[in-house]
Design brief:
Low-confidence stretches of chain A: 101-105
Helix content of chain A: under 10%
Strand content of chain B: over 45%
Radius of gyration of chain A: 14 Å
Order of helices and strands of chain B: EEEEEEEEEEEE
Largest interface: A-B, 26 and 27 residues
Largest sheet of chain B: 6 strands, mixed
Oligomer: heterodimer
Low-confidence stretches of chain B: none
Helix content of chain B: under 10%
Radius of gyration of chain B: 14 Å
Number of helices of chain A: 0
Number of strands of chain A: 11
Shape of chain B: globular
Mean pLDDT of chain A: 88
Number of strands of chain B: 12
Chain lengths: ~120, ~120
């Protein structure tokens, strides 16, 4: 099973709202990722969690707050977003982490979820 | 810094035509290479990948890609396309580094393939 699930599928929120996006995988993967994809553009990396620790924050504004409660779950908390934050938010996971330190930066296949289509009014 | 170039923004083919989508990357070291496909309204799916070994890689749905190290290329091919291949195709590269340094997946800008029935 190479499935990454994301909820909700669609989300509409106002600029003063607080909401959360959820991602789940049960493949035993130890690296999880958040990407942002604008229309007709490639995915852009936002955050990487490696063994439930934040490894990479690609200069993402603080109105986006990631959380990894356990090895299967990844959340993205949203607060005070702007209309330009409207996009498809993708979660991905991979078996090995490129940021493990001890094992070295070995890359691995990332499996993507279906995404959450976010609209900020 | 790594970068990935996909030369074709939009390719339009008739069914049964042959397909080749170009992908070039810039990085002098060892890389892992991927092609992902995004069908309309669907999520990114892995078509094929190259980590090491035979540079000619076969993927799902009759796709294949060839890694040519000297040309820094990883072009995607299919001998005969179908209408159902209409989708956006993304090439992605991950630099293999050791010692715990970064290995981000870098995507190209994508190529939209439209297949006319």
């Amino acid at each position: 099973d190479t499935e990454v699930t994301q909820t909700p599928k669609h989300l509409v929120m106002g600029m003063t709202n607080k909401k959360s996006l959820k991602c789940e995988q049960h493949m035993g993967h130890r690296a999880m990722y958040w990407y942002k994809q604008k229309a007709k553009k490639p995915p852009e990396l936002m955050f990487v969690y490696s063994y439930e620790k934040l490894s990479i924050n690609e200069s993402v504004p603080s109105r986006f707050s990631p959380e990894c409660p356990n090895s299967s779950l990844l959340n993205l908390h949203l607060h005070a977003l702007q209309p330009e934050d409207s996009a498809l938010y993708l979660c991905a996971s991979s078996h090995r982490s490129p940021y493990s330190g001890l094992a070295g930066g070995l890359a691995d296949t990332q499996y993507f979820g279906p995404g959450t289509r976010l609209t900020v009014l | 810094a790594q970068s990935v170039s996909q030369h074709n923004h939009h390719v339009i083919l008739s069914e049964a035509a042959s397909l080749e989508l170009g992908c070039n990357y810039s990085y002098g070291g060892t890389v892992n290479l991927f092609w992902y496909v995004q069908y309309p309204g669907q999520h990114l799916q892995l078509l094929l990948k190259y980590f090491s070994g035979d540079p000619l890689v076969k993927g799902i749905k009759g796709f294949e890609a060839e890694f040519i190290k000297s040309k820094f290329s990883f072009n995607l091919r299919k001998p005969s396309v179908q209408w159902s291949d209409t989708a956006e195709y993304f090439c992605a590269v991950n630099a293999v580094r050791y010692g715990g340094s970064q290995g981000n997946l870098i995507f190209g800008k994508g190529t939209k393939l439209s297949v006319k029935p």
